[in-house]
Amino acid sequence: MKRISFLPLALMGAMLLGSCGQKQETPSASSQDTAQVSVGDTTKAVTSDTQNSQTANEIRKFVFDTYTEVFSAYKVEHIKGGNGPDRSVFDKKFLSQRLQKAIDSEEMIDFDYWLHAQDFTTPVFDIKDVHATDEKSGYADIEIKVFGEDDSEGAVSRVQVKIENGEWKIDDFQYKDDNGKYRGWE
Asked: What pTM, to 2 d.p., does this model score?
């Protein structure tokens, strides 16, 4: 009877698991267009409290899925030579009612609040930190590079989220001011 060694299989499995989580490829409008999104560890919990850890993981997944979808659309628009996707589609899907009203009441918005920029090519993001305030709210700090992975100048923004009508929604986009404090949509 032959002896079968599972060590090579175990090593191969460990190598595959170790390489997971750094790059995600998301399909876009056509098979030749793809959008790559950089993300941090999508399983990282930020607190030792079980409920907050579970909530933090839910927030991380919501933010990851949301920005993957939004940035994929921006990349497709860039490839097509457009000025960006119709933000109202994403606003209705991902923003709280309060934030939608605040944005709609602004007379002049001179930057894209999804990117925290005016110009873009192939934006990427990296989730730097996630914090659950309680089981229905929290925030994620995201580094955004609007000109792609090689853009050395990334900007960190904070996305406040909350449960609204049973779903996670973005309730505020916050950016650091000149004093390093986060400021939201006021």
From this structure: 0.70
